[in-house]
Write a structure and sequence with these properties.
- The chain is of the alpha/beta class.
- The protein folds into 2 domains: 206 residues, Enolpyruvate transferase domain (UDP-n-acetylglucosamine1-carboxyvinyl-transferase, Chain), CATH 3.65.10; 210 residues, Enolpyruvate transferase domain (UDP-n-acetylglucosamine1-carboxyvinyl-transferase, Chain).
- Helices cover 28% and strands 25% of the residues.
- The chain contains 13 helices and 26 strands.
- The strands form 7 sheets. The protein has a 4-stranded mixed beta sheet with strand order 23-25-1-26. Strands 2-15-17-16 form a 4-stranded mixed beta sheet. A 4-stranded mixed beta sheet has the order 4-5-3-14, covered by helices on one side.
- A hairpin with a 2-residue loop joins strand 20 and strand 21.
């Protein structure tokens, strides 16, 4: 039975919310645990459908796993990994599971991994992954929807990406942990999740330097030198940015805990530019307040430390009621404006022009029935609902469940009138009644 969120007439938020462990980090830590012939324990693991899928991938490869959802802990025993085949059944559901490719090469010198799936936000090729593995001495072929990689001499090399790629950086970093010699990744991705993965691998005994910069150096060691470890995942910066936007959109206030503010410096700067109030209470807690009418602003999505593409849809929803005209440029994924047609249903005034969205702020949006077309678009619909008159219904919650733990409970903790119910409606979407000014 499908479900939907129903958000009633909105009032300003008030309350607090605690950010969960980072989805985009913990999934890679789980994959990396395959490299070590021992047991790793990962803490601060969010209860998400993506985590369940990754556990299925690890179990298929021979790992023994225990998931304590109450204490947010995953235990992974990779002692007896002998299977290098990660099937389409699981990998096609979630792109992050493709990172078992590098881990299996480091562990078994062989990998047979299905091409990745996940949100259909645009073309996300695997050529950087393959080029990097070939530099390390692997032969790689794509056959029947699988990347088949193998080596008899995994050796260090200089790997230079044309553009920074998070997934390719992670896969090459993992693969090179057990390579003979030193690997240097140039033009590497610099996201905090890259640093988290490097710290996790170093906790297992790897020798990695420079994570968080454009050049990462991995001094290869023998696989037998790696040992199990215990590690705590960093907070989810995208979830934090989502709740910041929800609070601001409502014109309310709130406290966000378990946040690393320095991971959102540029995003926070844009919120301040719009007229929001953000104050640091302590190193991991912020106070945030919105006002009745924010100001328009422009931004371009870029690799970290630039504006996160994962917050583009969320910020776009916030701009729908800002005073003035905003220009949003999506430079990373060509299909990441799927949320716009849902915002149109609510009365947003948005013109799409290739990689640009031109948003003229309206006084308010109109509540209606919308879809979560992908993970972050689903969160964007909640942001839009915060400035809507009338009731908003959001369907296709399976996308939201991939990245937001205890979403309804956290929204309710901010004094938002929201419920999750079975969706028995076959009615067509109704358009929010709103007079939209033309550009």
């Amino acid at each position: 039975m499908s479900e939907k969120l129903i958000i009633k007439e909105v009032k300003p938020t008030k309350g607090e919310v605690s950010v969960s462990g980072a989805k985009n980090s913990v999934l890679k830590l789980m994959a990396a645990s395959l490299i070590c012939s021992d047991t790793c324990v990962i803490y601060n693991v969010p209860n998400l459908s993506d985590v369940d899928i990754m556990l299925q991938v690890l179990n298929e490869l021979g790992a023994k796993t225990k998931y304590d959802k109450i204490n947010k802990k995953v235990e992974i025993d990779s002692t007896n990994i002998t299977n290098c085949h990660a099937s389409k059944e699981f990998v096609s559901k979630m792109r992050a599971s493709f990172c078992v490719l590098g881990a299996l090469i480091a562990r078994l010198n062989e990998a047979d991994v299905a091409l990745p799936g996940g949100c259909k936000i645009g073309e996300r090729r695997v050529n950087f992954h393959i080029k990097g593995l070939e530099s390390l001495g692997c032969t790689c072929n794509i056959i029947d929807g699988y990347v088949k990689a193998k080596t008899t001499n995994l050796k260090g090399a200089i790997v230079c990406f044309d553009v920074p790629s998070v997934g390719a950086t992670e896969n090459i970093m993992m693969a090179s942990v057990t390579a003979n010699g030193t690997t240097i990744i140039q033009n590497a991705a610099q996201e905090p999740e890259i640093v988290d993965l490097a710290n996790f691998l170093n906790a297992m005994g790897a020798n990695i330097e420079g994570a968080g910069t454009s050049q990462i150096i991995i001094n290869g060691i023998k696989q037998s030198q790696l040992k199990g470890c215990e590690y705590t995942t960093l907070p989810d910066r995208i979830e934090a940015g989502t709740y910041m936007s929800i609070i601001i959109a409502s014109g309310g206030e709130g406290i966000i805990k378990n946040i690393f503010p320095n991971h959102l410096t540029l995003f926070t700067g844009k919120l301040l530019e719009m007229g929001a109030n953000v104050k640091l209470i302590d190193p991991n807690t912020i106070f945030i307040k919105g006002y009745e009418r924010l100001k328009a602003m422009n931004f371009i999505t870029q690799p970290y430390p630039g504006f996160p593409t994962d917050l583009q849809a969320i910020a776009s929803a916030l701009l729908c009621t800002a005073q003035g005209i905003s220009v949003v440029t999506e430079s990373l994924y060509e299909n990441r404006f799927m949320h716009v047609k849902e915002l149109w249903k609510m009365g947003a005034n948005i013109i799409l022009n290739k990689k640009h969205a031109i948003i003229k702020g309206v006084d308010y949006l109109g509540g209606t029935s919308v879809e979560a077309t992908d993970l972050r678009a689903g969160a964007a619909m909640v942001v839009a609902a915060m400035s809507a008159r009338g009731e908003t219904e959001i369907t296709k919650l399976e996308h939201i469940d991939r990245g937001y733990e205890n979403f309804v409970e956290k929204l309710q903790g901010l004094n938002i009138d929201v419920v999750r119910v079975n969706d028995n409606s076959n009615k067509e979407d109704k358009i929010g009644e709103l007079n939209v000014a033309k550009l």
